[in-house]
Design brief:
The structure holds 2 protein chains of 2 kinds. By secondary structure, chain A is α/β, with parallel strands linked by helices. Chain A has helices at 54-61, 65-71, 86-96, 112-121, 134-141, 145-159, 177-190, and strands at 4-14, 21-27, 50-52, 74-78, 101-106, 124-128, 164-170, 195-202. Chain B has helices at 3-23, 44-62; strands at residues 83-85, 96-98, 104-113, 124-129, 132-138, 144-150, 152-159, 166-173, 179-183, 194-196, 199-201, 203-206. Chain B is elongated and about 65 Å long. Mean pLDDT of chain B is 69; it is low at 76-101 and 188-225. Classes of the chains: A alpha/beta, B alpha+beta.
């Protein structure tokens, strides 16, 4: 497989990306255009970014193999949108085996086939669902809310709620606490049991 | 990276190395760090200790001995499972399957409003041990939560917007009865950091063009490279 660009690799994350010690590997490329994107580098020209094949990434992050095994951790793929790179994830999992847990931070703005493929190799999903109101969702991200929510339902059917954490941000000028309550209620009605809520304060 | 955060990470990783050494009878002296500058959580000395442990474990495997690593650091791991120990330098044929299983106990509880007795959904339950967060959960639509913990003593912190923080210390697991929590109404300003089971209800400072460092108690959310 050809190498793909990454905007960064962050080691020794404790309890942030799920269980144990994890390394975050952030892909370049994202289908959304969030107004307050935290990783804008993933939207810019990939020229100059470090590139890895699955084997090269394994060799690079494997320096923390002992911590991954001892703590039940592993690699968290983010970005950008990691589910745009399901082939990469699949090959990476084949290399690292069952000793490492893989996590994906995703907006689920991907084809449903990508969700199915990721569910085969990723152990836990951190879903940035943004909003349940489609107008607010589009206004903030320029994306289609229905696609994300349909994929969330598909993901739940494939991996179960115990492997899914959903993030619900309260974003000034876009949604309110009441909007977030509605989003959270919809998530609970779907069977989601793990919800993280954030508040953005824009300076 | 915030200096204190880096030191905290170093301390956690040092504890993991100590556990691995102790469990496998490896003589590894890990002195306390006296460096006072900015720390990313690791340094050449820390990295050399990891390489030493890997080499020692590889030697044991080659001699036909069991190498125990999986699930040792339970304060950072929710479950322990059978794992292959495969040090990075090893070929697959040299790895030895080891098992490490620890009994996990179900912990249940419920959260209600103290006055109305109404169940409170989406309340965050933070589980602490020795001052560090080890697990967390969120109440469901009926105000109930459930999680699994190894045997031991824990502190529970229950936090949600609009209610006073609730703390129950010295909770022994396995528990004889579910944890029943009554929260007192307390109007809390929304722009406060509130711990949410496993992560935080943080204030994320976003610059006018986006992409700004965020600070959840010193942890950056975007990649630094």
């Amino acid at each position: 497989m050809e190498s793909v660009p990454f905007i960064g690799i962050d080691r020794h994350r404790l309890g942030i990306d799920g269980v144990g010690v994890t390394t975050l590997a952030a892909f370049h490329g994202c289908p959304l255009r969030c107004r307050y994107c935290l990783n804008r580098r993933c939207l810019e020209d990939p020229e100059g970014l470090r590139r890895f094949t699955p084997q090269e990434l394994y060799d690079y992050v494997g320096v923390d193999n002992l911590y991954f095994i001892a703590t039940g951790g592993g690699v968290c793929f983010g970005g950008g949108e990691p589910l745009l790179r399901v082939d990469f994830l699949t090959e990476f999992k084949a290399i690292c085996g069952k000793g490492w847990n893989l996590t994906a931070e995703t907006s689920l703005q991907v084809p449903s086939e990508s969700v199915r493929g990721a569910a085969e190799v990723v152990g836990d999903f951190i879903v940035d669902i943004k909003e349940s109101n489609p107008d607010i969702y589009y206004s903030y991200t320029s994306g289609d809310a229905a696609r994300a929510w349909d994929n969330l339902a598909l993901l739940l059917s494939l991996v179960g709620p115990e492997h899914v954490i959903v993030r619900v941000p309260q974003i000034p000028d876009y949604n309110t606490e009441a909007d977030c309550d509605r989003t959270a209620q919809r998530l609970v009605s779907m069977g989601i049991t793990r919800i993280d809520r954030f508040v953005y304060r824009v300076k | 990276m915030d200096m204190n955060r880096g030191k905290d990470i170093c301390k956690e990783l040092k504890a993991v190395r100590r556990q691995i050494a102790a469990e496998n009878g490896i003589d590894l002296e890990i002195p306390e760090c006296t460096y006072h500058g900015a720390c990313p959580g690791t340094c050449p000395r820390c990295e050399s200790e990891v390489r030493f442990l890997e080499n020692e474990l590889a030697k044991r495997i080659k001699l036909g001995k069991v190498a125990t690593v999986a699930g040792l650091a339970l304060t950072l791991s929710a479950t322990a499972q059978a794992q292959d120990v495969a040090p990075r330098q090893q070929q697959a044929a040299d790895s030895v399957k080891v098992e490490r299983k620890v009994a996990m106990y179900e912990v249940k509880g419920s959260v209600v409003d103290e006055k109305t007795r109404e169940p409170l959904p989406f309340v965050n339950v933070v589980v602490m041990r020795d001052g560090k967060q080890v697990h967390g959960a969120t109440t469901d639509f009926d105000g109930n939560f459930k999680l699994r913990l190894p045997e031991g003593e824990y502190d529970f912190e229950i936090v949600t917007v609009g209610y006073a923080r609730y703390i129950r210390t010295g909770v022994k697991v396995p528990m004889e009865q579910p944890l029943e929590v009554e929260l007192k109404n307390d109007a809390t300003p929304i722009d406060q950091i509130i711990e949410v089971g496993g992560s935080y209800f943080p204030i994320i400072d976003i610059g006018p063009e986006g992409g700004m460092n965020t600070n959840i108690q010193g942890v950056p959310l975007y990649i630094q490279y």
